[in-house]
């Protein structure tokens, strides 16, 4: 039997400038969960660890995190656990000037095996574990693929002849019907039926699919373990983060388990706003006060259609101050769903209306449509003052 740990999308040393003075602390959340995977590996001693891309969030991670990764992988290496890694869209160089991935350094000191591209063939590794022949194929993300073509249209698989055949890939597989903007799609038909397990990376949610192989009468298991921490509010915030722990024998996959990792609490709430709400700030506080948690990241989304004069009642700076006191970080979204009513200028029915007549009718319409008596009085005053100014400057 062989035990394999499959993980991906660590995004170590991420850019967290939107967390302001907490940016370093937030980056440590990712490092902490990386350490949890290392601790699990040292305890359970899998035979193989697969890292399916985006070990780092960029090709230039800071030196402290590089040193930390080397230190931790040295521990893994000392226990004779083999690590195989491919590059993701974040840690693969995009130019000749930056032609070396940070993963290459780990490959140089032999703490992991970085499976890099080899001409027109998909790279292959062979190893023996407990009298089982294992084939591991690897395809990193093609960052210079501007035509959005499937790289597997042109690349060939070497001979697939293992007792266990695994394909590591970073990118969007068509079977999952999900992609990020600008992604190319990897056609599942281009993945040979002989592949037992597709160790995928790139999608940040944990997703699993089973593909039946009609020619062989077998199944291929395709899995995205997801990222080890939340990077975006677009991820499934209700699902856990974690990694896969797998057991194979000569007959195929014996057991698979998704090992959950505790992450920083995160959530979002949509608050409906009406054009009759006089105190939007108070309404927001009322809706989120029960969610207060100094460790939680929260995004508030205001949804609805309001009048321009209601904007001041949102009190954005005061809301952010409230967030700083009651949450780890509060983000306020007042643009993606919130709309503002605009008053259309209705011209008088008669021809050749003067600017003064157009203005009077426009103000009369606003006053007539306004239900709030205080605002009606304000509009009346604005109308009178404006008419005096128009008369002063000779506008008819």
Structure notes:
With 396 residues, this protein is of the alpha/beta class. The protein has three domains: 2-261, Purple Acid Phosphatase, chain A, domain 2 (4-Layer Sandwich); 266-341, no CATH class; 355-392. The chain has helices at residues 23-44, 63-78, 102-108, 280-288, 316-326, 355-369, 373-392; strands at residues 2-7, 48-52, 82-86, 113-114, 123-129, 132-139, 164-170, 172-173, 185-186, 197-201, 207-213, 218-224, 241-249, 252-261, 266-273, 293-307, 327-333, 338-341. A six-stranded mixed β-sheet has the order 4-3-2-1-13-14. It starts with a strand and ends with a helix. The mean pLDDT is 91.
Radius of gyration: 29 Å
Overall mean pLDDT: 91
The number of helices is 7
Would you identify the CATH H-level superfamily of the largest domain? Metallo-dependent phosphatases
Considering the chains and any ligands shown, give keywords for the structure.
single chain, about 400 residues, alpha/beta, Purple Acid Phosphatase, chain A, domain 2, 6-stranded mixed sheet, 7 helices
Question: What's this model, at a glance?
Answer:
With about 400 residues, this protein is α/β, with parallel strands linked by helices. About 25% of the residues lie in helices and about 30% in strands.
Describe how the helices and strands are arranged.
Blueprint: E1 2-7, H1 23-44, E2 48-52, H2 63-78, E3 82-86, H3 102-108, E4 113-114, E5 123-129, E6 132-139, E7 164-170, E8 172-173, E9 185-186, E10 197-201, E11 207-213, E12 218-224, E13 241-249, E14 252-261, E15 266-273, H4 280-288, E16 293-307, H5 316-326, E17 327-333, E18 338-341, H6 355-369, H7 373-392
Parallel strand pairs: 1-2, 2-3, 3-4, 6-7, 7-10, 8-9, 10-12, 15-16, 16-17, 16-18
Antiparallel strand pairs: 1-13, 5-6, 11-12, 13-14
Helix pairs in contact: 1-2, 6-7
């Amino acid at each position: 039997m062989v035990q394999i740990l499959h993980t991906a999308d660590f995004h170590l040393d991420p850019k967290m400038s939107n967390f302001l003075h907490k940016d370093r602390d937030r980056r440590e959340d990712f490092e902490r969960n990386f350490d949890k995977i290392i601790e699990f590996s040292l305890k359970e001693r899998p035979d193989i660890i697969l890292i399916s891309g985006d070990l780092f969030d960029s090709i230039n991670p800071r030196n402290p995190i590089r040193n930390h990764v080397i230190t931790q992988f040295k521990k893994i290496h000392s226990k004779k656990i083999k690590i195989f890694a491919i590059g993701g869209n974040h840690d693969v160089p995009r130019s000749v000037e930056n032609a070396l991935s940070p993963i290459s350094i780990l490959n140089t000191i032999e703490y992991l095996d970085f499976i890099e591209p080899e001409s027109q063939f998909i790279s292959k590794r062979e190893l023996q574990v407990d009298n089982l022949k294992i084939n591991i194929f690897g395809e990193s993300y093609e960052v210079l693929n501007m035509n959005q073509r499937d790289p597997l249209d042109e690349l060939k698989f070497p001979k697939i002849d293992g007792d266990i055949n695994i394909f590591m890939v970073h990118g969007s597989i068509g079977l999952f019907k999900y992609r990020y903007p600008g992604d190319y799609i990897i056609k599942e038909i281009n993945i040979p039926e002989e592949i037992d397990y597709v160790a995928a990376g790139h999608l940040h949610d944990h997703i699993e699919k089973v593909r039946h192989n009609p020619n062989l009468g077998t199944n291929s298991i395709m899995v995205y373990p997801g990222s080890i921490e939340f990077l975006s509010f677009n991820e499934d915030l209700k699902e856990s983060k974690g990694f896969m722990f797998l057991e194979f024998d000569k007959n195929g996959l014996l057991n698979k388990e998704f090992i959950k990792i505790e992450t920083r609490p995160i959530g979002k709430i949509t608050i409906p706003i009406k054009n009759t709400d006089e105190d939007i700030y108070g309404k927001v506080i009322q809706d989120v006060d029960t969610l207060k948690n100094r460790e939680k990241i929260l995004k508030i989304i205001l949804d609805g259609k309001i009048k321009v004069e209601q904007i001041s009642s949102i009190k954005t700076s005061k809301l952010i101050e409230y967030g700083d006191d009651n949450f780890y970080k509060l983000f306020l979204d007042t643009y993606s769903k919130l709309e503002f009513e605009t008053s259309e200028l209705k011209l008088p029915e008669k021809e050749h209306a003067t600017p003064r007549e157009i203005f009077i009718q426009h103000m009369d319409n606003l006053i007539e449509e306004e239900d709030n008596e205080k605002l009606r009085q304000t509009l009346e005053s604005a109308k009178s003052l404006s008419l005096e100014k128009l008369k002063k400057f000779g506008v008819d």
